[in-house]
Amino acid sequence: MPPGGSPSSKIGAFAVAKGLSPREEAVLVCMVEGMPIDDMADHLKCAVSTVKTYLHRLFNKTGRGSQLEVMGLLIEWLCSVADEDAQ
Question: pLDDT tens across 3-30, in order?
Fold first, then answer.
């Protein structure tokens, strides 16, 4: 990834690295934007239960058990990418 890539491209790279589907990536972006689950459902035009399904898949693919833990993993991953870009 080129240094200084956009935040969305970096989230996209994280999604690819973790094997996320496009909808799981969309849920991740909603998480980054701080949306509650109800707002995610409205934004993605799907049911709350569908968002919860995507969240559980996201948790399984990242090996994390909560939105907070996924965000922590994303931050760690972004920092490691930034370190690689700086070298």
Answer: 455 667 889 999 999 999 999 999 999 9
Reduce the DSSP state of residue 21 to 3 states and report it: coil
- Cα distance between residue 47 and residue 55, in whole Å: 13
Going by CATH, does the domain composed of 30-86 fall within 1.25.10?
no
7-22 CB burial, b ≥16 within 10 A, e <16: eeebbbebbeebebee
Largest distance between two CA atoms of the chain? 44
* Residue 48 Cα to chain centre, angstroms: 17
Q: What is the pTM of this model?
A: 0.86
